[in-house]
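User: two proteins, same treatment. go.

Assistant:
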Amino acid sequence: MDQQELNNRCVTLFQSPRIQTKLWNPRMFWEVGRKLNTTPDELTEPKVDLCELEVMLSAAAYEPSQCADNLNQREAGRADFIRRAVQSGQRPFLRRAA
């Protein structure tokens, strides 16, 4: 999955009702400038690693992740750590976008 497709998946996950109950602001994960209210099509420039964000949002939305295996291959146990943190009610720190 390329970066654009991955970003689109993250934006879609971010709009899920389970994610919305967390009250996470898009500016935590995407560059949005000085805008307070953003639309999904404005979320194009990620601040964080999209693979890590996809794992976190998937766990919070109770959906299977499409990046977990890739992330665990890149760094052993990283996706598992992110999922456990979300499942225990925490929001883990994500690495900056490359």
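Protein 2:
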Amino acid sequence: MEKITDLNIYKMLSDELRLKILKMLSVKNMAVGEIVEKTGIDQPLISHKLKELRENGLTVSYRSGKNIIYSLASDSLKEVISVVEAAGSKIDYVCNCVECKEND
């Protein structure tokens, strides 16, 4: 497992599906099938995203019977995800590109 670095965290948060999975895991540990059910995304893609998260040190997994259960690798990641969610809800994006200014 790689050491969690700022770059790893930013890279993993930059993908919408990985971020969604991390948000779900910040609430509770989940089996792959449960994540598939809640997201409505095909299992192979979910498994691929979970593998990326695990290889970059953001999640850990363990086997429970036939299921593989995923959780956040660190409680401090819950804080990071919470801050990201809070920032996203407070930032009003205003585009200042030429095209948008012409349409005002």
